Amino acid sequence: MVSQTQKTQTFLAQAPIPFYSGGNWVNARDGSIMEVEDPAEKQLLATMAKASREDAEQAILSAASAAPAWAARPAAERATLLRKLADLCERDAEELSQLEALDVGKPVENARGFDVPFGIECIRYFADLCESQAFEQQLNIDGMNARSVRVPHGVVGFIFPWNFPLTLCMWGIAPALAAGNTVVVKPSEVTPLSTLYLAKLMDEAGFPAGVASFLPGDGPEVGEFMTQHPKIKMMSFTGSSRVGRLIGQACGAQLKPVKLELGGKGAAVICDDADLDATAAGLAGAITLNTGQVCCTATRWIVHESVADSFIEKVKAELKKVAIGAGMVEGNQMGPVVSQRQLSTILDYIARGQAEGAELLVGGKAPDDAALQNGYYIEPSLLKGAEDNICFKEEIFGPVAYITTYSDDEDALRQVNSLDYGLANSVWTRDPARADRIARLMVSGNSWINAHNVFAYGLPYGACNASGHGGGVNSPETLLDYTRNLSIAEP
Ligand code: NAD
């Protein structure tokens, strides 16, 4: 068991942990608090002040008054502060990793190896980019002195989900701040801890008051209020397609720009010429990463009928090797799911999938390990059946894959594209031409070849259809998404 550092303990011991609004650490005006649970033990981890609409109003007003001065700062100064923040995140990487492991349930080694360093890299990426980005361009139009200027929107509201709270927050706010916006952030009420620790580091880095506020609170309360607020000039939402539709409708009614990064039901096409050992290892890794609570992961495995039996045997062997247990125990590869609610949702999907005719190949229950009875654990699970099954069609958000078979590539593509989701898919084959063709014809924001869950800065990570729109994250376009055009012209 990893020992909590002194700083982690001190942070968690605040009762409640205050939130950060307009440069101040405050408790809720109405005194509300929320409880944060450790999913590995089903025990209270921390209490946190819970923001209301009135608290959100204060944060939004201070973000609006901080916006002009922040936008007027030279990009190099914004970059310097972002780099300072990145350095502080690096200094406290262990605390951030521990909070992520405790709150989400993920293995602390994953948080140390991916969530935290990759988030820090994001901050540095956008710090560098905003310095090199030409936010202003002289236009060559006859008889006119004309310039095109990219200006920030003003206040951007962010709402985040619970599965990668820290990384997603960094992916969102780093480009927005770099582009000169101020931000109001609502983390998920399920996993707010690392986001509030990030707020602490922003405070220490010296960001001016009001440039970033962090408000843990309920979605239909604080999130909806932010979405409707006229001083929030742009919304950026990461979460389910269901809530994304609500946010999109509300922003549409106000003609407010919105970025939506939503749910997924990714497919993996396993061709008859695939390296089956590598494919089985890769997809077992994909479905157990973050206990399957990954928007873009491969949850529909569409396998060529000639290799299906062999592939299934190999992947079962891979899944057996996965060490399940508390995120704070080093060596564990898959933790609990985040909550009782999520566990019930997953088990309910598996039961409904079976009732609709699918065969449960492995999993579908808690591991047979007395040491794990205190947490929200489930074994990695495989179902096999027809396409007309709820587990093929709907996002489950757990370590569950649904296997179908196909006879030719057109049939595989038809299956991949039969749903409205469009986040990420992969194709597994030794034939580069076949890989390229299938990758281009799968309708989504991301097509990966012989791998799943591939991220890099400079590689846009976006979506289409029910998985969202707005240009995605992690690329130069993302920085510009957080600006609008201003044309200045003198004939
Ligand atoms: P969710 O949609 O239930 O909640 C997301 C956030 O929205 C939370 O902060 C919640 O409080 C808030 N919210 C809820 N109702 C609201 C309302 N009426 N108005 C405003 N805000 C509201 O999603 P979740 O269960 O937290 O996360 C899982 C979902 O997120 C999955 O569907 C997953 O695919 C998706 N996700 C997508 C991406 C991506 O990049 N595309 C990344 C991570 C997760």
UniProtKB/TrEMBL annotation:
Pfam families from the UniProt entry: Aldedh
Gene Ontology MF, one: oxidoreductase activity, acting on the aldehyde or oxo group of donors, NAD or NADP as acceptor
Keyword flag Oxidoreductase: yes
Protein's UniProt keywords contain Oxidoreductase: yes
Domain Aldehyde dehydrogenase, chain residue ranges per copy: 25-484
Keywords: Oxidoreductase
Similarity annotation: Belongs to the aldehyde dehydrogenase family.
Classification via PANTHER family: ALDEHYDE DEHYDROGENASE-RELATED (PTHR11699)
UniProt protein name: Aldehyde dehydrogenase
Species in which this protein is naturally found: Simiduia agarivorans (strain DSM 21679 / JCM 13881 / BCRC 17597 / SA1)
Origin organism lineage: Bacteria, Pseudomonadati, Pseudomonadota, Gammaproteobacteria, Cellvibrionales
